[in-house]
Amino acid sequence: MDAVADTFSFALSVTAPIFLTLLVGYGLARAKLLSNSFVDDASRLVFLITLPALLFFNIFGSDADPTDEWPLLLAGLLGTVLTVPLAWLCARPLAYGDRSAFIQGAFRGNLGIIGLAWAVNAYGPSGLAQAALLMAVITIFYNIAAVALFAVYSQKAKFSWRKLAIDVARNPLIVAIVSALIAKAIGLQLPQMVVQTGEYLASVTLPLALLCIGASLDLSMLRRSSFGAVVASAFKLLVVPVVLVSIGWMFQLDGQSMAILFLLAAAPTASASFIMARALGGNSQLAANIVAISTLFSIVTASLGLALLKVNLP
């Protein structure tokens, strides 16, 4: 009985602080203490500066060898690729114009903030380094799949490999991760003042980003949620983790790698799915509903899943 309590206590110690910080951000926004302009500016600061700093300095300072992580990276990529045709099958009953928002909401997770935050809470810097590498690989696929989906289902979007390559190459998160790997490979030595400055910037990333996500939540969306939004959220929170963990089991990942794979898979739908749906002519209302529902219920599914995984991990 004590072992079961310890397991659930560990799971909640990973997920609950993140969820509570989201609620704080939501409450501050409702109390008018966080304005829309502040949230927009802070979100941009996180994406362009502090999150890249977090990723760069964590990977650069890690003792882990990135080449040892190929089973985790391959399992994550294969599992994510498999979820797209499964989501496409689930979207078939929907109206044609709704399918792109449904499919993207069903497979595209909030890896950069919530996934990384869970990884840090669970395993500290080593977990963050693993999660950052996995995030880079999956994010590249996310961009390819999302743009292709909207090109197929939307009249406003046209697929362009050139534009996609430029967008990926300019993504600050991917640039930071690749730069850190190159810096490690060539044995670059950074002055301590630079490292300390980078760590200062990195330290504000997760709390600031979580507050912004919480402030951006519109829980009134839940009352207007469609059946499609509920199904897409269930797919993201239940089917995606099962698929990725199954692939991880086939690759015989160790306990920490399996948990990191699960935590990123269990992350709720990324806000970027709503932004892209609105920009490329998809059903942005459906996309927003999926973000709200999956974010609210991810605390339950991630906590239970992590507890079950921990019981069965070697």
TrEMBL record:
The record's annotation in InterPro entries points to: Mem_transp_PIN-like, Na+/solute_symporter_sf
**Keyword Membrane on entry:** yes
- Please indicate if the UniProt record lists rRNA processing as a keyword: no
- Primary subcellular site in the record, as a coarse category: membrane
What residue ranges are annotated as transmembrane? 6-29, 41-60, 72-89, 101-120, 132-153, 173-194, 200-217, 229-251, 257-277, 286-309
Q: Name one Pfam family in it.
A: Mem_trans
An example Gene Ontology biological process: transmembrane transport
UniProt lists the family membership as follows:
Belongs to the auxin efflux carrier (TC 2.A.69) family.
Which keywords annotate this record?
Answer: Cell membrane, Membrane, Transmembrane, Transmembrane helix, Transport
- What protein name does the entry list? Transporter
Give the location in the cell. Cell membrane
> What's in the GO CC field?
plasma membrane
Give the organism, scientific name. Answer: Microbulbifer agarilyticus
Membrane topology designation: Multi-pass membrane protein
